[in-house]
Amino acid sequence: xxxxxxxxxxxxxxxxxxxxxxxxxxxxxxxxxxxxxxxxxxxxxxxxxxxxxxxxxxxxxxxxxxxxxxxxxxxxxxxxxxxxxxxxxxxxxxxxxxxxxxxxxxxxxxxxxxxxxxxxxxxxxxxxxxxxxxxxxxxxxxxxxxxxxxxxxxxxxxxxxxxxxxxxxxxxxxxxxxxxxxxxxxxxxxxxxxxxxxxxxxxxxxxxxxxxxxxxxxxxxxxxxxxxxxxxxxxxxxxxxxxxxxxxxxxxxxxxxxxxxxxxxxxxxxxxxxxxxxxxxxxxxxxxxxxxxxxxxxxxxxxxxxxxxxxxxxx
Length: 315
Ligand code: TXA
Ligand code: MG
Description:
With 315 residues, the protein is of the alpha/beta class. Helix content is 30%, strand content 18%. The protein is built from nine helices and 16 strands.
């Protein structure tokens, strides 16, 4: 086990909160993926996140908070945002909102935008770390830029190693894909990233259609949504109805696969396995190239398809 991986106990949590307060980087588990966390108010610490990830640009980061009330400390939240938070937080849902004031301390975390993103993760370790640090913690996924997001402490250590001061081990992430991001700065809610909370659940609660930003230049967009993102080293063919010779098939549902995201066709199970199986396939496929079964385009299937389209993107 990597020397930077720490078991979850009071002593290590306290240590991790000190690291955050002193401008260091702590990787912590959330229900979606492991985050690479820093004090949102400490520009130097935030910059070191980008350095550790090797990110090509300063993308805006999600500020993670531990109470619903903290939204209004940093952002302008209308009743729609508050009711969504009450319904779905803690959970895999991120809001983009107008910043309350352009406090320069958070400029780098927000990439200088007038908006910011906020989420309350559903994971005791994450929430305790935020509480004990006493600041919002910005955290992108804890992996090198353009590689597969980590869902275990070992994935983080493999990708970032000594670039992170501490990795808090909370086992495997339950949801397995990143949070759903919606922009609430305008009249209509806009989906910026499909993720761990389904579009259907959001629309049912809001009782309105959520607009989809992807490919629509007239809607708000997410600066960090690069086409190539979650990339395995092997080529990946998607919507593969059948495994071809010299292919390693990551299957879904009842099929003859080398690894199966969910033999019973359960999209939640598939999301939970997605990143770990992409990694595993990348390691063991050898000379074969990767193929992935079709995934239904509803519920968590939207997030899964979004990620695998990026993983397959050549450009
Ligand atoms: O599940 C998650 O959301 C994980 C865990 C660690 O919480 N975090 C995560 O962060 O996925 P990251 O940095 O990989 O993705 C954040 C996305 C980026 O695409 C970024 O462009 C977008 O959120 N974003 C952040 N602030 C924004 C803003 N003000 N306006 C539009 N997009 C924003
Ligand atoms: Mg990421």
